[in-house]
Design goal:
The complex is a heterodimer of chains A (about 325) and B (about 300). Chain A is an all-alpha fold. Chain A is built from twelve helices and no strands. Chain B is about 75% helix and about 0% strand. Chain B is mainly alpha-helical and about 300 residues long. In chain B, helix 5 runs antiparallel to helix 6 and helix 5 packs across helix 8. Classes of the chains: A mainly alpha (about 325), B mainly alpha (about 300). At the A-B interface, helix 1, helix 6, helix 7, helix 10 and helix 11 of A face helix 6, helix 7, helix 12, helix 13 and helix 14 of B.
Chain lengths: ~325, ~300
């Protein structure tokens, strides 16, 4: 297991390196001048001001030198300061990561709690009105933009309970109850879209497993149907579901960017949006990288969970 | 001059045309839900195209005395904080949202398909590079990648279109690459190579036709996502800038002002959801009609 872990970590290194190259060179090869993008439509900006911006962002250096400088900063965790302010980027991102992680954790738990029963019910009552209703709900969940679901949720909470998002986020270890009340609604909004995708897969996976010989044998032995489903069928059906959960984490982060903005959570997503609105390119680069790193880490954790789910899988 | 090999593998044009017409009728017969979704989508597109004619009010005109109106006979979906008719703004917004969604889908899917075709035919280092780039890109959420490009290009119609299109390249590249690899292994491709066909001719006339079905499926299943992505950019204030109405942008304001008039928050979201729902149903139906093996990609 530890050999597998080391191997996976080593394989993650070129992925992370590739990610830094993708982010860095995407910004640099786009048409236009970053310095001009920052000043926008200001016709009165002088050439000296543009040169000053380029010097501050090291845009006057050769592109490879700029990239290696950024890698050096990442390795030493000194990400520099936000453009236009003296606030250290590393400090800002380190404060934002736990918020996004908190939201993602609640969302994953809610997604599994909602999607697995929904998909299982749909599979058990195949081609009945329950099945069609579940599949219809799943398609509606896929078609509805998460930011609109977030706005409607805010509206219902505001009109029904006079609830508004709080300005300061409380950590889970600090006060679990307040933390739960702050994150449950954005997590539900995010989980709605994820549930739709996962429920469909759970349904397909369970239908496949229910047709297997060992399930027929378990029924023939006289086991109760719920024992057959829970102990024999569902556990085997969960492996592709866990795989998709990992693949869906990137989609979850997309939703998190928007949901954090709707609910005013100071996570990585809203930090990225603030960086884009402020045209703070150092912050934009680092925020995008950290979001990508979070996806890689979560996928690694999910890979490692396979052995617990399926003891036949031997890590080598 | 047409080679004999080409004449052997390509159907005569009139028969192909007839099959295409028959294909549409067969699609309507076999996929009634998809056909209904197509009809709804065509209605929405028609409404968007005819919006300058059918919109009851000018979407840009302020009428502060009419602000925060609830739905009524005069204003079917109410008015916003500037007294602008929401229904007219949604109709006009459909033009931009649908145009950007469809064009970004066509551009991104076509570029991805072309790169996939090249990657499959040439193989070697180019193929390896393409696959590694796609693998790394998968570690980054598509919307985040799109936001990165919008940050570089600036929020504008051009910037949004390119950003959305680039975000859509990875999946068609993989899918078309797979289809092209299968076609490349066929005997007729070897035959074409043996009689001296140049590489571009083999790719376009012998391998590409095998990729048409998955290409069409990819187009149909990607449109819904592209429309949502465009609306998301508009909602975040990074899409087409005001006063041009787009669906996402209408909801940005609505988020802050729903207490005054909740209908401004409800109606644009329903328009987006209905359009994307129709696109998803159509995409599923096209996939089931043309290539059910693509289910799950």
């Amino acid at each position: 297991m530890s050999r597998y872990l080391v191997k996976r970590l080593l394989l993650a290194v070129p992925t992370v390196l590739g990610l830094t190259m993708l982010i860095f060179f995407t910004l640099r090869i786009l048409p236009g001048d970053i310095a001009l993008t920052i000043v926008g439509d200001d016709a009165n900006v002088s050439a000296e001001r543009l040169d000053e911006i380029r010097r501050t962002l090291h845009l006057d250096q050769p592109i490879w030198v700029q990239y290696l400088d950024w890698l050096r900063q990442l390795a030493s965790m000194d990400l520099g300061k936000s453009f236009g302010s003296d606030y250290p980027i590393a400090k800002r991102l380190l404060a934002a990561i736990p918020v996004t992680f908190n939201l993602a954790a609640y969302t994953l738990v809610l997604t599994v709690l909602m999607a697995v029963p929904l998909g299982a019910l749909s599979a058990i009552k195949r081609n009945s009105w329950v099945d069609y209703l579940c599949r219809c709900l799943a398609l509606i969940g896929l078609s509805t933009p998460s930011f609109w679901v977030g706005i409607i949720t805010l509206m219902v909470l505001a009109f029904s309970f006079n609830w508004m998002p709080q300005i300061t986020v409380v950590g889970f270890l600090e006060d679990p109850v307040t933390n739960f009340s702050q994150f449950i609604w954005p997590a539900l909004v995010l989980a709605a879209a994820q549930t739709a995708v996962l429920a469909r897969l759970t349904r397909s996976a369970l239908l496949e497993v229910l047709g297997e010989d060992y399930v027929r044998t378990a029924r023939a032995k006289g086991l109760r149907e719920n024992i057959v489903l829970l102990n024999h069928a569902l556990r085997n059906a969960l492996l592709p579901v866990v795989t998709l959960l990992g693949l869906q984490f990137a989609a979850l982060m997309e939703g998190a960017v928007i949901t954090e903005t709707v609910f005013g959570l100071p996570g990585l997503g809203s930090t990225l949006i603030q960086g884009i609105n402020a045209k703070d390119f150092p912050l934009i680069q680092s925020s995008v990288l950290f979001i990508g790193l979070l996806v890689i880490v979560i996928n690694l954790a999910i890979d490692l969970s396979y052995a617990w789910l399926d003891p036949r899988i031997k890590f080598d | 001059m047409t080679s004999r090999a080409d004449a052997l593998v390509q159907p005569a044009l009139p028969a192909a045309r007839l099959r295409r017409l028959g294909g549409l009728a067969a699609f309507v017969r076999r996929q009634p839900v998809g056909a209904a979704a197509l009809a709804v989508l065509l209605l929405i597109v028609l409404a968007a195209v005819l919006s300058p004619v059918i919109a009851p009010y000018d979407p840009y005109e302020n009428a502060l005395s009419q602000k925060w109106q609830s739905p009524s006979a005069a204003h079917w979906m109410g008015t916003d904080q500037y007294g602008r008719d929401t229904f007219s703004r949604i109709l006009w917004g459909a033009r931009y949202s649908l145009f950007l969604g469809f064009s970004a889908t066509v551009i991104g899917t076509t570029i991805g398909a072309f790169l996939g075709l090249l990657s499959a035919y040439h193989g070697g280092k180019f193929d390896l590079l393409m696959l590694r780039v796609v693998d790394v890109k998968q570690a980054m959420p598509t919307l985040v990648f799109t936001l990165l490009i919008v940050a570089g290009l600036g929020p504008s119609v051009f910037g949004v279109m390119i950003a959305l299109a680039v975000g859509l390249i990875a999946r068609p590249l993989r899918v078309i690459r797979s289809a092209a690899l299968a076609a490349r292994a066929m005997t007729y491709v070897d035959a074409a190579r043996a009689i001296g066909c140049p590489a571009w001719r083999i790719m376009l006339l012998h391998i590409a036709p095998a990729c048409i079905a998955p290409y069409i499926v990819l187009l149909s299943i990607s449109v819904g996502g592209a429309i949502v992505a465009e609306a998301s950019l508009g909602f975040l204030g990074l899409g087409v800038q005001p006063p041009t109405p787009t669906w996402g942008q209408i909801l940005t304001r609505a988020q802050q002002t729903f207490r005054q008039n909740p209908w401004v928050a409800i109606c644009p979201g329903l328009a987006i959801s209905l359009t994307v729902f129709a696109c998803n149903l159509l995409g599923d139906a096209v996939r089931d009609h043309l290539d059910p093996r693509l289910r799950g990609r």
